[in-house]
Amino acid sequence: MTDPRQWHQREHAAMRIAYAALEQRSRAIGMTRLVCVAVVIVLAVAIGLHLVPPVAGWGLLGTAVLFVVLMFVHVRVDRARDRKDAGAKFHERALGRNLEQKAPQAQETLRIDGEPVANHPYAGDLDMIGDGSVCAWVSFVRTQPGARTLRDWMLAAHDPPAVEEIRARQGAARALAKKPELVRALFVAASGASKAPEKAIAFELWAQASDPPVGGPLWSAIAWVLPIAVIGTIVAGEVMRWPSALTWAPYAVAVIVGVVVRGRVGRIASAVVAHEGGALAFVEAFEAALSERFGDPRLVELQKEIEAGRAGLRALRRPTTALDSSQNDVIRLFVAPIVMLELHAVLALERWRKKHGASAAKWFRAYGALEALASFGLLSHDFPAFAWPEISSEIRFDARALGHPLVPTERRVCNDVGPLDAGHALVVTGSNMSGKSTLLRSIGVAAAMATAGAPVCAESLSLGRLRLATSMRVSDSLAEGASKFYAELRRLKLVTDMAARGPGVLFLLDEMLYGTNARERLIGARATIAWLLEHGALGAVSTHDLALADLSGPLAGRARNVHFEEQVAGDAMSFDYKLREGVVKSSNALRLMRQLGLPVDGTAGGGEDGGA
User: Are strands 566-569 and 572-575 parallel, antiparallel or unpaired?
Assistant: First the structure.
């Protein structure tokens, strides 16, 4: 098997070489076109001034024809160049992820629509969306439907799909993992659609709307009768020498009708014409999606919808070409009013909408699902050590060599977590910066990615259909008048409400109730954890409070202590991030304060840090 990093490097180099060659060719063609323009101008002036014989007109005509031919060739060369550039960016993005483990800036659609991230059961705590997030790191989608699908799947672990659905996504993504060239083709082909992602939404809304801006028998009659009247009166007026007002009156009416139509269909035009990144920009993307056929049932289903979409969008070409051409000022003023070009185009679009409009959303959803699955497949291709989770109907979480995908491979330390069954939890103790929060986030990210149908950063993972909820990154709100402690209480209420609806909640709680005194924190934390376990939840709790690690009473036999610790050599302190059994025996808070030059009473606690 070819090393993924080497494949990306080799293909990137080839794309950049091809891009440079096409860029040079494009510049040469551009210069030649400028020369043609100059020759045409010089010959036209020379012929007009009788400086050259009339036969030079053939040279002018030939140069003009050459200019037109070069114009079409130039367009094709530039498109080929742009494809190579998009292909190179695909590999640059992959190499950046592989070499630096950095998540790029997120697409706007990789965010939660109209809802604060903090209100989601886990998105904010686990850095699932936004810049530098897990979604941005996984994503190789280019279109709005693809980004929307990827976001929805990655944020659905609090209300996961059926086990069969998750397995179907896994099967499709596995098949795509063997076809990185197809994933690149989707990335490149969707470049046009990615330039204006809001146009896909506008098109869907138009396609499903039931209030045509122009339609009905009256407009159809105008579309056919008015051109006849315009042409007839102009011809008759010139032949019979009618007054100008009478000769051009129907033309004036046609201009007014054109203005009315244009005002009503402006949004339609922007949603469907190709050069603005509208619906027709998806034709090339749909073509790429159908360039290879698969035997996987989910991919067969998606390609069937995409194939119907390709046929439907192709039927849009003629009316949208007419709308596009009407944007030219000459055509708009002199041609469109005479033949009612825009009105005929809009009526054709309305006929298209009646036939295909109800299906348009299905086409884009299918393509969005394919893009999301392609991102999962490429993740598996680029990180072959990532495991495909085993999804079962049991309530459990059992991971071997689990790590966080955003930690660079060279620095990532993986740990075994589990097995955890319903009604069982880990109590994680450890000193500051030792890895407690990262462990909890690794568990949460793995659960979210597994539920979405993606591979995970682990040697193996077995889990059931768990409902994920976290309380890790709580902040106060001046606008709502809520303190950090009250904000955490509301967050814990969200977790307990989910657990009250049935077993199978995977909870991750970081430093529970740190906003109150030690006595009340211990009572409240132990009671909450015990209640969650009694209701069939499972999860992990991190804490500095060693009293919480006392697993007697209601936590006996249900919770297990694990810990991280630091290594000290003289004044130097380091961490190995290895998860160990039992309760931590040391802490580093005072040592860190001394290192930063903060005043610390060195005699307290024997001059060394005490318990965690």
Answer: antiparallel
